[in-house]
Amino acid sequence: MSLDQRKERFMSRTALPADRHQLIRERLQQDGRVLAAELAVLFGVSEDSVRRDLRELAAAGICQRVYGGAIAMTPTPINIRLRSAANVEYKEMLARAAALLVQPGQLIFLDASSTNLAVAHALPRELGLTVATNAPAIAAALNEREDIDVLVIGGRLDHKVGGTLGVGALQELQRMRPDLCFLGICSIDAEAGIGSIESEDAAFKRALVAGCGSIVAVATPEKLGTASPYFIAPLAEIAQLVVVADSDVEQIKRIRQTGVTVIMATD
Question: What would the mean pLDDT of 194-205 be, rounded to a whole number?
């Protein structure tokens, strides 16, 4: 079969929306994002047709529309106990780099997340720190640290998130003004900002962003360049992002262009 014949056969298949949708899904899974203009050329259809495809896929929860195209949705998270056992080496590396941002005498908030549990274990000693958290696992990890005062936020425990949420937790949070917050995130993208899978979790994190002096996000590689159903904040609200050194170069470039300081964690 000649090249022209193969191209004609491909075009005839991709003229069908179902075939285009499948190929877009594959591109999102492989690259994390797609551009409408490039897809229009690839499929031999108008950009309006591609934008319609992307709207339909976004409505199905496959992607999130951004300027010029779409980005993949972050994978649905599993229970925090299982998340804590995944990417352990990455999280320990990230935690060591993140802990260096802590200053003596600070009130720090460690938001519920498996990565922040690793940060709790890596906190430096004898700095006179006070650590607030809504995560029982983080509080338990600091139980033996007599050099750290621990404040535990009460409220309804969400077992999937691994932290207390709801009205009670928000009311307690509003009574404090942490100097530094390590924010747990499900996704981060230069255009889509930072997001969460859970609605109540996103509401709690928005309150954290509003009430803390400085926000640090610590992200494993699979979260970069993805979106979540519930928006937390634009990247402008993040002072620093800690990532591993082998994270996607193009994603890091886009994030840096927003003005966020990116810290590369290495061995």
Answer: 94
Whether the per-residue pLDDT at 12 is higher than 80: the answer is no
Query: Tens digits of per-residue pLDDT, 118-153?
Result: 999 999 999 999 999 999 999 999 998 999 999 999
Sheet holding 193-196, edge to edge: 187-189, 193-196, 230-233
Alpha-carbon distance 150 to 130, whole Å? Answer: 6
What is the 8-class DSSP label of residue 224? B
Helix or strand holding residue 31 (H, E): helix 17-31
d(CA 116, CA 218): 8
Question: Position of tokens 């519920």?
Answer: 112
d(CA 65, CA 52): 11
Closest CA to 185 of 138, 225, 139, 155: 225
Backbone torsions φ then ψ of 200, nearest 5 degrees? -65, -35
Closest to 161 (Cα-Cα) out of 203, 193, 131: 203
